[in-house]
């Protein structure tokens, strides 16, 4: 006999009944597929990760099942679990109760467990071959999903190692090499083929050749070189470009910065990584100069905080006027006050007060003012936009040439790893349909419905488990990872804070119900009704 009932229209999935019931009658339905309502965190994640489901599994200690959830949508979880700017946490409904769930660190915890596993070799079920150009996160994600579907996939990359900006941009102290290597080894073990040191275009294989040999091509070549500015003195000895500087350091090339006074020009994440890196190479002083005012700097707040902790000086609202040299070597840089960065229409158009200038001594100047793509390998049949990205259909990622798809930074402009991963999956779905001559768009133009009334009332406050960092003193002159991971216990504690927004409580073991009515009494939405027999339950049953 079922004694209690749950009204699915009223239940918001807060899970209080699971905690309240002394006989453990309840379980959660986190799929709620027929309602197709996604929690705010999932709607905000560009890869659509189902946090509600996998965090519930972490809470229950079902780590293999949690890995299974990530396998469907987030092939680089140990990477994003370290460096994703986590828009999901900004959207997390728990912000209205106390503090967002630490989704990012939980993702790292599950992601690290995942890459420690031995992968199953993906079974090839199709003869149609797919080529992916670029082994950054977009290309890797696309190859992973296609391999899981059963396609033979070959990834071409011009560099000696796979990973794109994860390998040659992001420094080790944020993303250790061992983590990326394990992640890529996992894809190799699945059966994804890699052809490294193989640029497409130039003297090598052309895109037309690839299109002739493969049934579909995904272009994911990123924005792999620094955008140049024509500032006087840029060719002096001691002037470096941000991306190329990071690439050299990440390739173990000798870069001399010990004892040098360094000025980094730029306020974005690449400039921030350059500043934090050159600091670790033993620079005597690192000063970041950017056009934006302090509150408008585009770098992630977390990285900015770290830079300040580590002694980097941030000098906002200045622009480079000229780099000054003596005997062909940099001795400093002249800066001019920046009074605005955009025009009335919001377009980038910096303005300066030429009356306010200053000179900063420097032995090394690193210019890091943005990235751009090399599009020279594209045939005319693949159209590009005015912003020098590849023009794609926003839903299917197909380019102007059928059978050729593009995604990641090359189509979106410089963005984030998780956006590239999301694009890789969308492209894989399109490529599968293209090969099967199916409609690329059918059923895909549906915006997920967001859970409108996530739990809030009567949710007990529980302090967030914060991500710890190694002490500042331990970071000097080495590339040890700064952020620490969660232990099993911390993960479980933090996963318990997830309110599983929009899931539904189900009475899994009705025969165990003792009619104590605790669930009905404590349910914040009055969704639970216990049998009328409760009237006869002695008062003693109440706590
Ligand atoms: C220094 C730095 C720090 C960053 N930090 C973060 C961060 O903390 N969090 C975050 O989310 N994002 C961060 N990003 C952004 C993120 O790395 C990118 O958005 C992401 O890597 C884009 O992925 P992608 O696959 O489109 O391109 P990429 O990662 O750029 O990969 C493109 C690949 O294509 C290859 N390629 C290029 N041309 C050819 C060709 N003709 N033939 C064959 N191969 C070719 C390249 O060698 C490269 O391997 C950072 C970027 C940089 C540069
Ligand atoms: S990938 Fe980023 S946005 Fe998506 S769930 Fe993970 S941390 Fe959040
Ligand atoms: S409480 Fe959980 S399900 Fe709800 S938005 Fe936050 S992480 Fe997502």
Explained architecture:
With 543 residues, the chain is of the alpha/beta class. The chain is built from 18 helices and 21 strands. The model is unreliable at 535-543 (pLDDT under 50). The chain folds into 4 domains: 1-28 and 513-543, Alpha-Beta Plaits (2-Layer Sandwich), CATH 3.30.70; 38-117 and 455-503, Alpha-helical ferredoxin (Fumarate Reductase Iron-sulfur Protein, Chain B, domain 2, Orthogonal Bundle), CATH 1.10.1060.10; 130-224 and 373-435, FAD/NAD(P)-binding domain, CATH 3.50.50.60; 228-369, FAD/NAD(P)-binding domain (3-Layer(bba) Sandwich). The chain binds flavin-adenine dinucleotide and iron/sulfur cluster (2 copies). One iron/sulfur cluster is lined by residues 39-41, 51-52, 55, 92-94, 101, 103, 454, 498-501.
Concise description?
This protein is α/β, with parallel strands linked by helices and 543 residues long. The protein has four domains: 1-28 and 513-543, Alpha-Beta Plaits (2-Layer Sandwich); 38-117 and 455-503, Fumarate Reductase Iron-sulfur Protein, Chain B, domain 2 (Orthogonal Bundle), CATH 1.10.1060.10; 130-224 and 373-435, FAD/NAD(P)-binding domain (3-Layer(bba) Sandwich); 228-369, FAD/NAD(P)-binding domain (3-Layer(bba) Sandwich).
What coarse outline follows from CA principal-axis ratios?
Answer: globular
The secondary structure category is alpha/beta
User: What is the third-level CATH name, the topology of the largest domain?
Assistant: FAD/NAD(P)-binding domain
This entry's quaternary arrangement is single chain
End-to-end Cα distance, whole Å, is 25 Å
Radius of gyration: 27 Å
